[in-house]
Structures are given as structure tokens and as C-alpha cells.
Amino acid sequence: MDTSKQSDPQNMLPEQQQLNLANTFLRSLKEKDWDLLRSILTTDSTWTLPGTSIISGKAVGIDSVIQRAQLIVGFGVSLQLNHILYGLDDFALSIHNQATRGDLQLDEHLATVCILQEGKIAHINTYLSDITMVNAFFTKEGLAG
Question: What letters, b where the CB count within 10 A reaches 16 and e where it falls short, cover 71-103?
Fold first, then answer.
């Protein structure tokens, strides 16, 4: 095994720094504090999310990532954190999202993996438990309501 590509433990983010970033990310979404979110993202950050809904695809750049966050919370989604999972150089959030729009209900579990660079979030990759539900809930029609 080639160990030259393994991360140097001296450069690892301590668990406390990962916890602080995770909590700041969640707080910025809950409080709709976009300056706070901007402060923990790299300028070239990305956010991938599966499906065909208006929040799906790959958001590229800090402004696009923030626009995606604004879209998600604009639908009245509640974010219940189940767990923060720590990796060598990154962390994952286990979240339960719920919202109601008319007769539609959003009730999904997701994992959001945050890849870090130099102490900030560079890449956000979200994994959904029910892509069909997300596609039905996050629509252009839902923005008008």
C-alpha cells in the first residue's frame, strides 16, 4: 500500500474543529444566516444532491451553494440532527428533514458529507433516502406557495 498519499495526522482537523464547523453549518441554515454560511465555505465550494428537483444537481461556487441553502430552507424544512460522524479529514451529518406543503409531506433521512480544505467546507455531498419524495416536494410550483 502506498502510504505517501495518506493524510499526515499533523494536518488533521481536530474533532472539535469539525464539530464547530458542523454546528455552524446547521446554525446558518436554521437561522438563515447567509454571511455565517459564507464564512465557513471555500470560494470554489460545491454541493451535490441527487434527483431532478429544483435543489438537485451540482451547485458550483460559494454563491450557488448559498442559493441552494436558501432554496431548501425556503420550503420550510426542519433540520433534525441525528448524528455528526467524524472522518479523518471531513465529517458527515445524519439528518432527518421534515416539511409540509399543501398535501405534500417531506419526511426523509439524509447524509450530508462535508469535505474540508484548510479549515473550511469545500465540498458538500448529500445522499437521500427517498429521491422520489424530494423530486415531488421541491418544485418550481412550490416556490410560489
Answer: bbbebebebeeeebeeeeebbbbebebebebee
